């Protein structure tokens, strides 16, 4: 008994939370009958017990208690029972009173013979037990321990008992066990103290161990062990399974893009062989290296495994695009937050700022200071915003300035486009000459990089004219830089196409020449040797005269562009940030003004600009990768090195941006840009693949009239014939046009569905807003609504108060001071209004007032009324 | 375990693993971090669950908390005695709740407790003021603080008792942009269809 009494209270105390919940659930399911009854009886039974023998065995009583009437008899049986059975029965009973009882009775009939032993003890024990059980199953584990010891002698009966257990009980017990298991799995999510968690865990585990084994007869236990193991494995590395490095909030968007881009690149590079050869970008050594299109030849199959190089070249080229598209779109879909836009932005400005602005990852004093400063600024900003919501003094001037700014920016965009076109044209002229200086050779790339360097700050300066809200301003700025990059890239592309066309003509000439040469050769050969057999020429005619191989030329352009981009960005960091930081830092000792705080100061780390650079860079890679597979390798190297380099630069020389924008909001903005770039870079590549004839003497597609002929060839030669016909059907316009139509319809449908969702979202939001407003209104007007109640109450006979409104007024002033604290001036006003409203009422009430009222009235009467009327403040 | 000193028994470790979001290694590491705070106080051997508490003043020197404006409140919230003295259990508890893998709901609960400075289960105006003062290092004027607190209350208080109950708080936090993670599949279908369409068109034009 002593043991029991110790255990029970502790457990009860510890497990209260769970027990309560569980009980509720069970009761809700209508199974709580036995429990409820059991509990009701408890007090009485407890007393009894104490009077009687204390050495009773705890477990014995369980069943007996559950079946109140037949308790005695059964209690005896139970005492002899083996532990598992009892437990089962107990659990089952606990779970559902009514049903369980029947089955229990059946069960108990079997071992009736043992009845005689300790009727009383059984009963009492049972009741006590029941208390434990009823409250919570968790305690069972412990009880069981006890039971086992006690009942070990009676184990022989166990088999019978087990068989006798009904299906329903089993199910119930299983349910219980499942619940426990759920608890174990979720215990880490419970907001409890660790101690409590540990206790619960132990109990639940003990319970599960006991019953799983007993229930499943070994199989269950094994299964459970397996499951536990699996969850351990899984839980060991939950959700974010691979330990991720956390990224400071300020760099999150950068990091995000890095990861996506890196991911993409790494995967690509596993397709292509990434070479780390040093670059010789002139038309020398590298031209026929693995870096470029021209390196690969058109052998249909290579080696024993029949690796189809041309086919895989095409497939990888197109598959890369497909995969990147999927990646970008999936990422976008993942962090597309519907309705997270302007609608909700205004709702919780201050509350969010207050509760979510601190970054819990900050561990550096300087960063923390910056964060404090930025939080303070943002609060001040919103205060100012709040205070002067609209102050457009001179809207005309503002408009004029904005138009002017846009005009200037359009001009500079056009100018830069023309400049690039001009330079490309010039470079075509240069291409025919040999005496070129280094600058003339690389003019195009240098100009493009310089434009990318000069224009963004220029735009920023012009954007000052517009005076947008910084967030909107940032978007404009990014959009403009993007337009610049894109414009430049496309001008470059068009110029390149011109070049390609001239190359194609040239190539045609060379091809004719080489065919002519070959014919000549054959003619000569047959004439000299006088042998009509076709003897292969000493070398491949394609190798006799090398054509210009426009694909390689395009690839070289892109590689040059990338490399010069790398150089420029590294140099910018070195000069623009590092040198500046050094000068500011060390010249500051001997300068007339404070360099650190004043004019030059340190460079800011421009997150958005950097991300945009990455996006643009990625676009170039996408475009160039088909013609220069090695570009991907170069880019991987570039990204890796620039990550460390920029990391160093940021740490050493930069200060954080003055305004930090939450990455999550603009996340999809950048991803959207990436998608756009992807699409725009996909267009020219697909166009060239589909329309331009490949060079006849270089690359995997040489000898074909179109690049995608490789696919046709494979279909014809390597696949069974019916596949060929199938494909020819599929390629039939008659099929494609309906497919296009279908897709248009699907787009239309999806679009309208999403519209509808958006609308219903808006509706819901509106409703919530209305509910909120109503709530607020109700709060503000509590006085007036309560007035009715007040009147009604005043009408009650015993309440009937003699006090006319006049006596009510005097007490009013005194509570006011207390009210001032909440700072609700409005409430004071309401109150007075109230009083004014209240005054006519008593007159109306006049006739109801009975005589005796006046005496006690003044004191209590106004009291309650006022209290309710005022609502929150007095509380 | 050989000659290595055991810090925890396997059972203890498993229990901790079940109760927290940490792995074995991390728990051992936590213990060593805990012990670093007060080497003379905390024994290496924890197999018998010694009842030892490390005072708040030592806990807040951890680099993880050092710069946090709410460090004292965090530690107090997780201490069983409410004074900021952490037993190892509390310590593990704290880091488990703060770690990256713990779910938002749990974090919200603890965040609420942390912001509830006077522990009345409501975030009232005083709590807000204290939060704000800590968050801005007291650089806002009195009026500004009052204005911000009023505004925040007005925004988030749904039941109109001019203090934030947990449900208010939860509602507000769950809508915070960093918490928003919708999985909008529709759009991805849309994009994919669009792209397929374009590719098909290209095919049609060229073929």
From TrEMBL, chain A:
Compositionally biased residues, Basic residues: 61-72, 85-98, 114-124
Acidic residues composition bias: residue spans: 46-57
Membrane spanning stretches: 311-329, 403-424, 477-497, 620-640, 669-690, 726-750
Gene Ontology BP terms: detection of mechanical stimulus involved in sensory perception of sound; vestibular reflex
Bilayer topology annotation: Multi-pass membrane protein
Cellular compartment(s): Membrane
Residues annotated as domain TMC: 549-664
Basic and acidic residues: compositionally biased ranges: 125-145, 768-781, 806-817
Protein name: Transmembrane channel-like protein
Native organism: Amphiprion percula (Orange clownfish)
TrEMBL record, chain B:
Protein name, UniProt field: Calcium and integrin-binding family member 2
Principal localisation: membrane
Pfam families xrefs: EF-hand_7
Keywords in alphabetical order: Calcium, Cell membrane, Cell projection, Cytoplasm, Magnesium, Membrane, Metal-binding, Repeat, Transmembrane, Transmembrane helix
Any one Gene Ontology molecular-function term assigned to this protein's record: calcium ion binding
One GO term of the biological process aspect: calcium ion homeostasis
Gene3D superfamilies xref list: EF-hand
Location in or out of the cell: Cell membrane, Sarcolemma; Cell projection, Cilium, Photoreceptor outer segment; Cell projection, Stereocilium; Cytoplasm
Transmembrane segments: 186-205
EF-hand domain segment(s): 103-138, 144-179
GO terms under cellular component: cytoplasm; photoreceptor inner segment; photoreceptor outer segment; sarcolemma; stereocilium
